[in-house]
Amino acid sequence: MTKQNVVVPDVKSGINDMITVVPNASLFPSAGQKPPAAPGGYIGISRKKFLKKLETGGGAKVNPWVDSMKVSSPTHAKSTPSLSPNVDQIESWILSHPSALNMFEQIMAASKGKQIVMFLDYDGTLSPIVDNPDEAFMSESMRRAVKAVARCFPTAIVSGRCRDKVYSFVRLAELYYAGSHGMDIKGPAEGVICSKVNQPVLFQPASEFLPMIDEVYKALVEKTRCIRGANVEHNKFCVSVHFRCVEEKKWGALAEQVRSVMKEYPKLRVTQGRMVLEIRPIIAWDKGRALEFLLESLGFANSKDVLPVYIGDDQTDEDAFKVLREKGLGFGILVSKIPKKTNASYSLQEPAEVMLFLHRLVEWERSLRGQSRV
Ligand SMILES: O=P(O)(O)OC[C@H]1O[C@H](O[C@H]2O[C@H](CO)[C@@H](O)[C@H](O)[C@H]2O)[C@H](O)[C@@H](O)[C@@H]1O
């Protein structure tokens, strides 16, 4: 196997999933290479303990892909007390990542004299996590909340999904959409002013990978056909292999099939999301770069007059949180019920709280403008 196709920069978990992060680790370490780093993103298990878990009887290493798949599984975490954070850890995490609802006034105080720009992840942020990715619908009340926010501030949806697919869920033409983990960016529909310079926005930095992604999608569908519950999703510039509905004892077989395909594609990498393996091009582009691109196209390149607020639940959202933190710009808000290592400043527990936060934003903006409350 070549070095390129073993890149696994992030392994994350999800909301109820006891997620862990394995930054810059390979899922398939080659000879002499260290096993994946400890789940540094997870609060509640030490690196030493995690490495120990990688060893089975006789010292044979468990397939690290399967291991990280297990660690990100709610059933696995629930049945493994050592993976659960204790009360002290939860309290200390809440102190360092307070609720964005409780801190609303402080957040708004920081926006004085600045243009707020909203960035919203989709799955797990605007819609609850469900078994079937095709049924991750957004509620009408959430749609109304996002629509109201977009009337007040430039608003973008930033998703791992194919842009058309996420648009079919959100159905609001006035938004910016960054699909395929930010590799497919489009501004609001024609007729809606979409940037300060009033130019349409369309950016696809991974176009040359389209044929390869089509090919790998077909190969993955074929190879995983025999594994009940496996679901391969074509996200245009990337592919998702879902294992949420695959029996845990089959995860090894699934990982093996994915590996057998991926070894032929050194220009693609695999990362892990919430019960999903994500296959995408090895290019220096992610949700963080998409955020920067959108701010620039809105006329806020290197500007201090902007306050971006990014809300997301996923490991891929960490790229955007990191950009905000490094630039000292705006705020990241992590949607999670459990402590996780994050670059976000604040937290919200679930999509219902995201909706409350959006409502408060709109009320705040309207009260500032002296408009009547709807
Ligand atoms: O960036 P996002 O908008 O959060 O997209 C990330 C992935 O979300 C979807 O998968 C996740 O949600 C599904 C529906 O709730 C769930 O079944 C799955 O287990 C989750 O991983 C989407 O299907 C993926 O293609 C996205 O990459």
Characterise this structure.
With 374 residues, the protein is of the alpha/beta class. It folds into 2 domains: 4-42 and 45-84 and 208-281, Alpha-Beta Plaits; 91-205 and 285-369, Rossmann fold (3-Layer(aba) Sandwich), CATH 3.40.50. It contains 12 helices and 14 strands. The protein has helices at residues 47-53, 64-71, 74-78, 87-96, 104-109, 140-152, 163-170, 210-224, 251-262, 287-297, 318-327, 351-369, and strands at residues 7-8, 25-26, 115-120, 155-158, 176-179, 184-186, 202-203, 231-234, 239-242, 268-273, 276-281, 306-312, 331-335, 346-348. The strands form 3 sheets. It has an 8-stranded mixed β-sheet with strand order 7-6-5-4-3-12-13-14, sandwiched between helices. It has a 4-stranded antiparallel β-sheet with strand order 8-9-11-10, with helices on one face. A hairpin with a 2-residue loop joins strand 10 (268-273) and strand 11. The structure holds the ligand O=P(O)(O)OC[C@H]1O[C@H](O[C@H]2O[C@H](CO)[C@@H](O)[C@H](O)[C@H]2O)[C@H](O)[C@@H](O)[C@@H]1O. It catalyses: alpha,alpha-trehalose 6-phosphate + H2O = alpha,alpha-trehalose + phosphate. Belongs to the trehalose phosphatase family. This is Trehalose 6-phosphate phosphatase. It is an enzyme of class 3 (hydrolase). Its cofactor is a divalent metal cation.
Write the layout of secondary structure elements.
Elements: E1 7-8, E2 25-26, H1 47-53, H2 64-71, H3 74-78, H4 87-96, H5 104-109, E3 115-120, H6 140-152, E4 155-158, H7 163-170, E5 176-179, E6 184-186, E7 202-203, H8 210-224, E8 231-234, E9 239-242, H9 251-262, E10 268-273, E11 276-281, H10 287-297, E12 306-312, H11 318-327, E13 331-335, E14 346-348, H12 351-369
Parallel strand pairs: 3-4, 3-12, 4-5, 12-13, 13-14
Antiparallel strand pairs: 1-2, 5-6, 6-7, 8-9, 9-11, 10-11
Bound molecules: ligand L263DTV3.
Catalytic activity: alpha,alpha-trehalose 6-phosphate + H2O = alpha,alpha-trehalose + phosphate
InterPro entries: HAD-like_sf, HAD-SF_hydro_IIB, HAD_sf, OTSB-like, Trehalose_PPase
Family: Belongs to the trehalose phosphatase family.
